[in-house]
Amino acid sequence: MALHYIPDLIYDGELAGIGELINNLLLKMGSLERGQIIEVIFNDPSARENLQAWCSVQNFTILDKKDFGSTSYYFIKKY
C-alpha cells in the first residue's frame, strides 16, 4: 500500500536553483505550523541532495520524494 500525503501548502519552485529554492522554502516553512506538510516541486536535479541536507540541518523530515525525469516532488513535514 502506497502512502499518500495531503499537503497543507504546495510550493512550485519550477526552475529555481538551489539557493533560490531554499530561500523561498524557508519563507514558506515559516507560515506552517508544527506538524504541517509542504509539497515542494522543483526541476533542478542537482538540488535533490542539497535539499535533503538542508532539511536535515533544519530538522524537517522528508516524508516522501518522487523523481520523474528532472522534476521532483518532495513532501516535507515541519517539526
Question: Please, could you describe this protein's structure?
Answer:
It contains two helices and four strands; from the N terminus they run E-H-E-H-E-E. The N and C termini lie far apart (25 Å). The radius of gyration is 11 Å and the shape is globular. The model has no long low-confidence stretch (mean pLDDT 92). The protein is of the alpha+beta class and 79 residues long. The chain has helices at 18-30, 47-58, and strands at residues 9-12, 37-42, 61-68, 71-77.
Main features:
4-stranded mixed β-sheet, 79 residues, alpha+beta, 32% strand, single chain
Count of helix runs:
2
Strand line-up in the sheet with most strands: 1-2-4-3
Q: What is the helical fraction, as a range of percent? A: 25-40%
Rg, nearest Å: 11 Å
Average pLDDT score: 92
Q: Give the biggest sheet.
A: 4 strands, mixed
Unreliably modeled segments: none
N-end to C-end Cα span: 25 Å
> Overall 3D geometry?
globular
What is the strand tally?
4
Percent strand: 25-35%
Structural class: alpha+beta
The topology string of helices and strands comes to EHEHEE
Summarize the structure.
With 79 residues, the protein is of the alpha+beta class.
Write the layout of secondary structure elements.
Blueprint: E1 9-12, H1 18-30, E2 37-42, H2 47-58, E3 61-68, E4 71-77
Parallel strand pairs: 1-2
Antiparallel strand pairs: 2-4, 3-4
